[in-house]
Amino acid sequence: MPYVVRRPDRNLWEQSYVPETVRGLGVTLRHFFRNVFGRRDTVTLLYPEQRRPYPPRFRGLHRLTQRDDGAPRCTACLCCQTACPAECIHIVAGEYPPEHPLAHVEKYPVEFWIDELRCVSCGLCVEACPCDAIRMDTGLHPRPVEARPHLIYERNLLLSISDTAGNVHTANPRKK
Amino acid sequence: MRKLTIDGREIEVAEGTTVIAAARALGIDIPHFCWHPELSVAANCRMCLVEVEKQPKLQPSCQLEAADGMVVHTDTPKVREARRAMMEYLLLNHPVDCPICDQAGECKLQDYYMLYDLKASRLWSEEGKVRKRKRAIFGPHVIYDAERCVMCTRCVRFCAEVVRDPVLIEVHRGDHSEIAVAPGRTLDHAYSLMTAHVCPVGALTSRDFRFQCRVWFLASTPTICPGCATGCNAFLDHHRGEAFRLRPRENPALNRSWLCDDGVLAFRLHNDHRLTAPELGRGDDARPVAWDEALAEAATLLRKVPKTQRAAVLSAEHSCEENWALAAFAREALGVERFFVTGRTAGTADDLLRHADKNPNRAGVRSMLGAEPEPLERLVDEATAGSIRGAVALGAAAATQGPAAAAGLLRLEALVSIAPRRGPLPEAAHVRLPSPSFAETAGTYVNARGQAQEFPQAMSPRGEALEVPDLLARLARRLDLGLPFRSAADVRAAVAPRLPRPAAEGGAP
Ligand code: SF4
Ligand code: SF4
Ligand code: SF4
Ligand code: FES
Prior knowledge:
A: 2 domains; 3-stranded antiparallel beta sheet; B: Ubiquitin-like (UB roll); Rossmann fold
């Protein structure tokens, strides 16, 4: 619906600009002197020497968690790929051969790609995962890289990343 | 006739109709596992219980015959509580391995859980569950997971009643009951994938489709099975240009609710060995080229052959539209008088669905030509003798095979092949022009019973493939020859009056 934006009424003093400009400059100068000579309440950090502590729920780069036997926890159900609004997850599902020790798990991701450049860090993939297999608790930002393909992360790299405490495993509380 | 009331709506049904079928006719879906419109009534899952006035207990609607004056309620608190209780019972020992299960997304357990249950299990521990066989190979196409099975026996009844090969049986009792293959047998009849199709849960799944694609990604387009001359109605499930399976589309007058295994797997005709760019040259000399170059070469080659020594090969694998366009192009532009027909070689037939002619449109080719085309064998003979020297051929399959046939085709001085995929005909050709697969074009097939059935286009043509009428129009322009059609609409208009009969009942999607 169209509506009218009402402009604030200005009196002659304000309308003449110069006094108001001087007043604005005064505010800037007051902050300047207060921070240079007096109390320091600047919000700027000297990154990377100083770092702000991250909240525990910070969503960093993804990792794929491992079972206790080192196999991926992921069962390639494609729930994360379905939930992802940026369409940056691509999984190819495969089947453990019958003689494999993990044959009872049946399904695993043969390929698992995440394009960290397209990711909008929404965390929906983590929410969607029924197996606690994908997490964003690594505390990491995407690294600067020389070419875009370097930020398309692949299965084994994702499996090797740990959380901030160095864990690569998760337990499946329902069953092993 | 019987007149009854279901949820306040009156309906009149034939004597012997069950309440669940009557409700279905009204558009009321009573949840069910074991009932299937094409199978006998087993009434063992108890999911379909409904309340009938003047009857003290809930009644299984799949077994209850409609009677005059019957008043049925399908959605009362009592019925909903019965459904919830049934779901709790069915899920008691269920492994809940949906992330691994291929049925997820089209599973009745999932759907009904969301609709009627939505409660956590009250079972004290995972270990308390009865464990059963997982990943049991039942046959070349089907795999079984006993823990997911709800023992509805649809698969057993399908084999016994529809295929009349009772290869699946029930074994053990109570909690431990499961489905097994009869001793000494494997589930290897020609309709084995239909057991996976009727299975309402993820107990029986297709080994071919297993883990290939999640079903919620699939788009479905109605189609006609290109596998044989029966012309079964089907859905083609596809995702991003890849086909994944064919599923039966109900047509009571033709294929009822079924497809044969070859039909389900006929989607491979779309995926495999595709020709995606025009090519010149045979064998090791083959090389992809641009359309202009391919068409110029085709025109040069065809010009060299005198009219009387030119022929056209129609294809029983291709739609009426494509065949008519080629016939019209050959007759009017090239002056061809000899028409041959190719297609896949004959196979097994049975009295359920499968037809010995493994091509969907032989009858259509006949109607489009207005005469009986000659067999490909004769073309091979005449090519060997040198009386036919040039041909335009539709389709990839050669109806006659063997070294003699291949040598005969190689004798042709100009063979222009229009085909969606590689095969003996395109391999023998000097010029290969890619055309859309059965899924990439709309068209009409005429089945062995003479029923014309239309199907829509499911995907856009892969690579550089061009619709056959388009491609022929370009070739005619190269040859400076006039064509009797300009657009796909012209082709459709020309095809319609030549079709044997108006579309078969239930055939139009
Ligand atoms: S965080 Fe969001 S955008 Fe990134 S991969 Fe997960 S679902 Fe996709
Ligand atoms: S990471 Fe989780 S949601 Fe994604 S495919 Fe694997 S198991 Fe499924
Ligand atoms: S395998 Fe499927 S169709 Fe057969 S009894 Fe079990 S649930 Fe029913
Ligand atoms: S559908 Fe009626 S008891 Fe199974």
